[in-house]
Amino acid sequence: MTFGERLRSLREENDVTQADIATLLNISARMVSFYENDKHFLRDADSLIKLAKYFNVTTDYLLGLSNTKDPYKNSQIIATYNSLPTAGQASMDEFLSFLASKYKCK
């Protein structure tokens, strides 16, 4: 997914208008439309950070570098994994291998 596709998807999922985003970033709604259609990209890092905070996602998610929206989800998973006994971790490893194979993950 491109930045524009992710922005549009987040905006629609959260029932937010282009005008709302425009106000947040102090730009025109037309410019938001350009972003969503990948005709322009943000001019500064501050805007990217504002969007990430507004939608409670990581900047990596917005940029397409990660598919994890929730900035805390991975750390919660790791903490749970680390709290398991060795046998539990082994079971989790097997299950993750199974899921990776089933969904053809890298």
Question: In brief, what are we looking at here?
Answer:
With about 110 residues, this protein is mainly alpha-helical.
SSE run: HHHHHHH
- SS strand fraction: under 5%
Percent helix: 55-70%
Query: How many β-strand runs?
Result: 0
Describe the structure.
- By secondary structure, the chain is mostly helical.
- It has helices at 3-13, 18-25, 29-36, 45-55, 59-63, 73-83, 86-102.
- Helix 2 crosses helix 3.
Spell out the key features of this protein:
106 residues, mainly alpha
Helices and strands, with pairings:
Layout: H1 3-13, H2 18-25, H3 29-36, H4 45-55, H5 59-63, H6 73-83, H7 86-102
Helix pairs in contact: 2-3
